[in-house]
Amino acid sequence: MEQADTRTTLLLGEAGVQKLKESTVMILGIGGVGSYCVEALARCGVGHLILVDGDQVAPSNLNRQIMAVYDTIGKSKTQVMKQRILQYQTDIEIECIDLFYDASLNARLFDRPIDFVVDAIDTITSKKDCIEYCLAHHIPFISSMGMANRMDPTKIEIMDLMKTTYDPLAKVMRQLIRKAKIKGKIPVVCSLEQPTVQTKIVNEDGKTRKQKMPPASSPFVPAAAGLACASYAVRALIGKDEKR
After folding, report:
1. Are 140 and 115 in contact (CB under 8 A)?
2. pTM (2 decimals)?
3. Contact in structure between 120 and 34 (CB atoms under 8 Å)
């Protein structure tokens, strides 16, 4: 009789599946990218997931975040993601940390062995801090670049940060990394699609440009990026990632 992991075992082998069960992956940011990444990691059988996000599900999340439905609006993103996973995967440990990542959390978050980190954070300085910490402590990771204002999921690729193009977020990240003199390879998921420019004011009372003119989004590109992050993580964990 087929089990939940039968088809995964056919692809990864028994040793690969066992390796995933023994692995701990931390996902920073459970949004459009992070939610699909978590979903794929859980369905692949990663045994321990640490979900980090201080946000709650909002109506604007309904178009692209896998755990966002009417019943979850206003609830913790990490908690509803955990409850979703437990509906189909019980052989898993899920830790929820309802905080937004920044460098001040490093001592708390990395007080135990972490096998892989997925950076799906929106804040640029926090992305830089995550990358810097992972490189300094030799923790395998992947960082998601900008996925807003795009429509084509087939343009998603994995490459080194310094080789990215057409990505305003990646451009800023390259500048921050150089300024901070951070050394090492920085694997990122990025889109080669030229983004559109969103200039429509949605919230007149917004304190920041992003709040006033939020980026446009689709269900296609963030989901594809999240799945790419998960695939890279799984291949790295079982030793089949040729790009590392």
Report:
1. yes
2. 0.95
3. yes
Which residues are within 8 A (CB) of 85 and not within 5 positions of it... i.e. 6 or more apart? 38, 39, 42, 49, 92, 94
pLDDT, tens only, 55-86 = 999 999 999 999 999 999 999 999 999 999 99
d(CA 190, CA 166): 9
CB 26 within 8 A of CB 243: no
Q: Encode pLDDT of 188-224 as tens digits.
A: 999 999 999 888 888 887 877 777 888 999 999 999 9
| Distance of alpha carbon 41 from alpha carbon 39, whole angstroms | 6
Cα–Cα separations (whole angstroms), residue 104 to 51, 99, 107, 162:
17, 11, 7, 27
Nearest partner of 77 among 101, 110, 55, judged by Cα: 55
Average pLDDT, the chain: 95
Of 124, 116, 156, nearest in space to 33 by CA: 156
Q: How many residues does the chain have?
A: 244
Long-range contacts of 177-185 (CB under 8 A, 24+ apart): 177/128, 177/131, 180/128, 180/132, 182/128, 182/131, 182/132, 182/135, 183/135, 184/135, 185/160
Q: How far apart are the C-alpha atoms of 129 and 14, rounded to whole Å? A: 36
